[in-house]
């Protein structure tokens, strides 16, 4: 099994004003996820959130620690949120097997020592996307499904943003230390994933785009409201969003995305909104 690791350091908004396309992609885009039989890890210094993936094809993929964590095992001081965006698979946590269908999730609390990812059929592998954040308390592992999560129906066809927001890991559904995750599915004909754009100064966020058809793309908007920038993204890529940045995207077709957040406030609706008329 291969482990692919990199890290991203924080950036100041005044510096980002001067970034060209390649610098924006270098600092904020995670474009190496979903590699077969590999544990891919991107350690960000935004709330110490870690973005990763595991695609078990020939064998299970083990969630192993890396030197940068300075931990005896991966979840020694961390919690974990996993969402399967591929075919059927399972996550085994300290000997207990949790089957995960497409778009189902699993919360794993701090202290779990042995975590591994499995596909039911290696020729049609599961694709596990995950976020991990520092934790101060251990909470129970919980299987999260599309049927048991909170669903918000948002937007409209007239504004091209009709979508269903599935809140898989928020405090009304599962107890966590600071990690929140969920997925949003856009309806056919809708392309805007979040409008009005917003910031939340009390936490960072990461977006993972998936279910995007071949030859289609998503333009992700970031930056301060008066200094917006954009990054063109492809299927199964993620982007890091600092607390000072808006985060919104528009695709050339409908798609889905996973949002993951961590910080000091667990109120999902704690956000500072900026209507299109305020953006520059």
Automatic annotation (TrEMBL):
Gene for this chain: kduI
CDD domains (UniProt xref): cupin_KduI_C, cupin_KduI_N
Enzyme Commission identifier(s): 5.3.1.17
UniProt cross-references to Gene3D superfamilies, sorted A to Z: Jelly Rolls, pectin degrading enzyme 5-keto 4- deoxyuronate isomerase, domain 1
Cofactor(s) of this protein: Zn(2+)
SUPFAM superfamilies membership: RmlC-like cupins
Functional description taken from the UniProt entry: Catalyzes the isomerization of 5-dehydro-4-deoxy-D-glucuronate to 3-deoxy-D-glycero-2,5-hexodiulosonate.
Record's cofactor remark: Binds 1 zinc ion per subunit.
Positions that bind Zn(2+): 198, 200, 205, 247
Domain of life: Bacteria
Keywords from the UniProt entry: Isomerase, Metal-binding, Zinc
Protein name: 4-deoxy-L-threo-5-hexosulose-uronate ketol-isomerase
Pathway in which this enzyme or protein is active: Glycan metabolism; pectin degradation; 2-dehydro-3-deoxy-D-gluconate from pectin: step 4/5
Coiled coil stretches, renumbered: none
